[in-house]
């Protein structure tokens, strides 16, 4: 379980969307540069709530992208087999 919020980016590969979760001390912009062949589509923060649900929220200042909480939470939940 995530004890604090982690960060995430949803990338558009041209064929599908790929979610990437990473530690909150890494900037969204830095992670996007590391995965430069993909286009960042949405970004924000993710946590597991007290009920075990995956909750996406917020935005990335460095990428100037917002999250889509409902859609992103569903997509990120698949990474946790939820």
Q: Multimeric state of these chains?
A: single chain
Number of DSSP strands? Answer: 6
Structural classification? alpha+beta
The level of helicity is 10-25%
Give the N-terminus to C-terminus distance in angstroms. Answer: 12 Å
If you compute it from the alpha carbons, what radius of gyration comes out, rounded to the nearest whole angstrom? 12 Å
- State the helix count: 2
Sheet having the most strands? 4 strands, antiparallel
**How much is the average pLDDT?**
93
Instruction: Please state roughly what percent of the residues sit in beta strands, choosing from under 5%, 5-15%, 15-25%, 25-35%, 35-45% or over 45%.
Output: 35-45%
* N-to-C series of helices and strands: EEHEEEEH
Q: Which strand order does the major sheet show?
A: 2-1-3-4
Poorly predicted runs of 5 or more residues: none
Estimate the global geometry from the Cα principal axes: globular
Structurally, how many domains make up the residues?
Answer: 1
